[in-house]
């Protein structure tokens, strides 16, 4: 692949704005498990090898099991996720595939399981990883 634009060099203020959102997500009450499930699933859907590699490694560091990591893409058929985790994965999928919109059922299921602040943090985490996926894929970041 030919070298592509290096946004942190060319547009450091814009890159910092995205980093500020990431730094905010790091301070939220979201559990490490919830954050990594969101990051891995969105990255799988978007085909971002760089982010899948990074976030599966991060999940392992935080104690996530290999089995749960391997089953994320087939979470509906796996009995290793909690009701809350399944709601987060469903919302992650629908926000990531936004052209299909977020169904009322998926949204209301998440809304009944989480308070408004936690739900807002989930949505912002999904939006943030989708931004990073697009950043990495467009600029040609590679998994190593």
From TrEMBL:
Q: Which NCBIfam families match?
A: ahpD_dom
This protein is called Carboxymuconolactone decarboxylase family protein
Q: Which InterPro entries match?
A: AhpD-like, AhpD_core, CMD-like
Q: What are the Carboxymuconolactone decarboxylase-like domain coordinates in residue numbering?
A: 12-94
Q: Quote the SUPFAM superfamilies the UniProt record gives.
A: AhpD-like
Return the Pfam families for the record: CMD
Task: Name a GO molecular-function annotation.
Answer: peroxiredoxin activity
